[in-house]
Design brief:
This protein has helices spanning about 15-30, 45-50, 55-60, 80-90, 105-115, 130-140, 155-165, 190-195, 200-220, 335-355, 360-375, 385-400; strands spanning about 5-10, 35-40, 65-70, 95-100, 120, 145-150, 170-185, 220-235, 240-250, 255-265, 275-280, 285-290, 300-305, 310-315, 320-325, 330-335, 405-410, 415-420. It is of the alpha/beta class and about 425 residues long. Helix 1 packs across helix 10 (about 335-355), helix 6 (about 130-140) runs antiparallel to helix 12 (about 385-400) and helix 9 (about 200-220) runs antiparallel to helix 12. It is globular, with a radius of gyration of 21 Å.
Length: about 425
């Protein structure tokens, strides 16, 4: 018996993450039968054309294509509402991936739920707990699955750490540090139009991966956040936090320091610099784990330069995303990045397969599947990862108040406040 139902897939957004991860994962799912037709909705024809012309994707997925909105011969551009028109053309209970700048997530997610579509949203789901809770409530009422693409949860290192921590083999988490420094060239991308100081910062944008990861590994909830930033200006003159350092205290008193920025040298050997160190105590002993995530033990020196900086020497990451030969045509995507995207979309197709077997109980079937994912806790959902919205909200409150500590309180309702307010 086939345990999945092929779904149409719409990707809202046509930026870097769609090139580097989402479209390749979607094309592979199409090969495997989980996905039928693929549409990509952007705001600029030029972005969609670049996605069509991506030679790496074309070589890996020969003969596969997507429907572009707007059409490539369209003279209109920058239509921020076009995705709503695309949604009206979809049958209900299909799949939508939202890959837009962080401040746009909440409204687009709510609109997609109004059109009865299952959702995978790139992190963060929303920038406040109130908005995350509204998404969870609406998804529950409509029987729709919503996943958040915290792909580090699918790294085998993270899953090993979760298993070892929850089994008691590491003791109790007491202190740690994490780092994620993204490339300098991000400053010349579309980031300069939305990554402004009043909207977001590096801690919220990428540091959230490691806060979520520590929560994923330990189950501990954060209770206080302090974030300070260093400002700079994009080439277009917009002011932004280019660097940020945060400190997160967890409910058991443990501390995590997180350093983030847009400044890894374009000429550097790695794609970025990132990693996590955690220290533990138990049975009158210490324990530790260290994930050196930017260096995965693979080094290459090429005879031809590669990438935007035309680099010869590279640290290659085989674990996040690579395209490799397989038994079929072209290449297949491997790594915890595509694993994360594909797991969520496969789950949506499996939900609808169960509904097809028991259509008279469609709503209860969908809710049961949603609750199973919530309880399992591997895929991030609004219910099992709501601490992230609280951390984002606390981080923004802190950084806009010169690093003052922002408290996260869970009773009577989850909320944040400045410590001295």
């Amino acid at each position: 018996m086939i345990d999945y139902k092929p779904l149409d897939l719409t990707i809202i957004g046509a930026g870097m993450i769609v090139h580097d991860l989402i479209l390749p994962a979607a094309y592979h799912l199409q090969r495997l039968g989980y996905v039928k037709d693929i549409s990509v909705c952007g705001t600029r024809v030029s972005s969609l054309q670049a996605l069509k012309d991506n030679t790496v994707i074309k070589d890996a997925f020969p003969g596969q294509d997507f429907t572009a909105y707007p059409a490539l011969d369209s003279t209109s551009s920058n239509n921020q509402e076009l995705y709503k028109t695309v949604l009206t053309q979809m049958a209900p209970y299909q799949a939508v991936v939202i890959a837009l700048p962080d401040p746009l997530h909440y409204q687009v997610v709510m609109d997609v739920l109004d059109h009865y579509q299952h959702i995978l949203c790139v992190k963060p789901l929303a920038l406040t707990h109130k908005h995350g809770a509204q998404i969870a409530k609406k998804a529950h009422e409509k029987g729709l699955f919503v996943g958040i693409e915290y792909h580090k949860r699918f790294d085998s290192r993270s899953l090993m750490a979760r298993k070892n921590y929850l089994s008691g083999d590491l003791g109790e988490f007491v202190i740690g540090e994490a780092k994620m420094i993204e490339p300098y060239y991000y400053r010349f991308s579309n980031f300069q139009n939305w990554f402004t100081a009043k909207a977001t910062d590096p801690f919220v944008y990428v540091g959230c991966h490691y806060v979520d990861l520590v929560h994923f590994i330990t189950g501990l909830k954060p209770v206080a956040v302090s974030v300070s930033g260093v400002k700079g200006k994009f080439p277009n003159g917009n002011e932004a936090y280019m660097w940020a350092n945060g400190r997160v205290r967890f409910e058991n008193g443990a501390l995590l320091s997180v350093t983030d920025g847009l400044g890894y040298p374009d000429e550097g050997a790695g794609p970025n610099e990132q990693g996590l160190s955690m220290f533990f105590e138990g049975n009158q002993k210490g324990a530790t784990l260290k994930h050196n995530d930017q260096f995965r033990g693979v080094e290459y020196s090429f005879i031809k330069g590669r990438g935007s900086a035309n680099k010869l020497f590279h640290y290659i990451n085989p674990d996040f995303f690579q395209l490799i030969p397989w038994e079929g045509e072209g290449y297949k995507p491997i790594g915890y990045g595509p694993d994360s995207v594909m797991t969520h979309i496969k789950y949506m197709s499996q939900i609808e397969a169960r509904v097809a077997e028991d259509p008279n109980n469609a709503y209860s079937v969908r809710l049961e599947a949603k609750e199973k994912a919530n309880q399992k806790g591997l895929m991030a959902t609004p219910e099992n990862s709501y601490i992230n919205e609280l951390v984002h909200e606390a981080a923004r409150l802190s950084i806009l108040n010169d690093g003052d500590m922002a408290m996260i309180e869970y009773e009577p309702e989850p909320h944040v406040r400045l410590r001295h307010s």
